[in-house]
Write a structure and sequence with these properties.
Layout: H1 2-22, E1 30-34, E2 39-42, E3 45-48, E4 54-56, E5 59-63, H2 64-71, E6 74-79, E7 84-90, E8 93-98, E9 103-108, E10 112-117, E11 123-125, E12 128-132, H3 133-139, E13 142-147, E14 152-157, E15 160-163, E16 166-169, E17 176-179, E18 184-191, H4 196-208, H5 215-227, E19 233-236, E20 240-246, E21 249-255
Antiparallel strand pairs: 1-2, 1-14, 2-3, 4-5, 5-12, 6-7, 7-8, 8-9, 9-10, 11-12, 13-14, 15-16, 17-18, 18-21, 19-20, 20-21
């Protein structure tokens, strides 16, 4: 009887330990992924990945399953005749990868959608898919650094992503954010609605992240909305212009 109770207690401890090792917090603020190991750390707690990470082409690859667990994201696999895709979705933010392709799609709610390019591509090895972790994590709000001393990746959640050197909040109130490969560096659409103050705060944050003084631009946006002169353009310095498209909509362009 005593031995039986000991076995039950030991089994219970194993179950608790297993839950501790495999459970990921609802918000993984701090993730450390060593190369070539199954063991990782999430919010200073151990987490066991389904398979070890590995280094290829200078990028650290992690299985789609483990990345989905880290992010508490929905992961959807699509197997078509001419392509195979993996979509990660969290809080209406989407990153879509194609196996063996270096182009991938990033969509943040309704305000941002862009085809991006990376210097490597997702892989299928056996029955498991692997993603270059940096490109997923950075587009879902993490700052990623590679520690070459202990050969690990660390991802800290900031709630922001970067484009053309600008830092953009994932939960911005700005109506539209677009980047272009040609003359226009970044384009923002601001609407004169109940969220205007929040939009202007986000505009100031985005501009300041690239050392552009936001104050004259914010002042001009408010002035243009007050005047309401349609189809007029205001040029601020050499690389910033404002276009009043309607009484309620301003297009802000930052030129290269």
């Amino acid at each position: 009887m005593l031995n039986h109770m000991k076995n039950i207690t030991f089994f219970g401890m194993l179950v608790v330990l297993g839950l501790f090792l495999f459970a990921v917090p609802a918000l993984a603020n701090d993730i450390v992924i060593p190369v070539g190991e199954e063991n990782s750390i999430v919010n200073d707690r151990p987490y066991l990945m389904d398979v070890p990470s590995f280094l290829m082409n200078g990028r650290i690859y992690v299985s789609s399953r483990s990345l989905g667990d880290y992010l508490q994201a929905d992961v959807k696999w699509l197997d078509k005749v001419d392509y195979q895709s993996i979509t990660f979705t969290k809080n209406d933010h989407h990153v879509v990868f194609l196996l063996n392709e270096n182009n991938y799609l990033v969509k943040h709610k309704e305000f941002y959608s862009n085809l991006e390019k990376m210097d490597t591509c997702p892989l299928l090895i056996g029955e498991k898919s692997y993603i270059p972790a940096k490109f997923l994590l950075e587009n879902l709000g993490y700052k990623v650094t590679h520690n070459t001393v202990d050969n690990s990746v660390r991802a800290i959640f900031t709630g922001e992503f970067s484009k053309e050197g600008f830092t953009i909040p994932l939960e911005t109130s700005i109506q539209s954010v677009k980047a272009y490969p040609a003359d226009i560096l970044l384009e923002l659409v601001i609407e004169n609605n109940g969220d205007l103050n929040k939009q202007l705060t986000d505009v100031a944050y985005i501009l300041d992240s690239k050392s552009i003084d936001p104050l004259p631009i914010i002042n001009q946006i408010q002035t243009d909305f007050m005047k309401g002169d349609l189809n007029t353009a205001s040029k601020i310095e050499n690389k910033v212009s404002l276009h009043l498209l309607s009484n309620d909509t301003i297009l802000l362009r930052i030129w290269r």
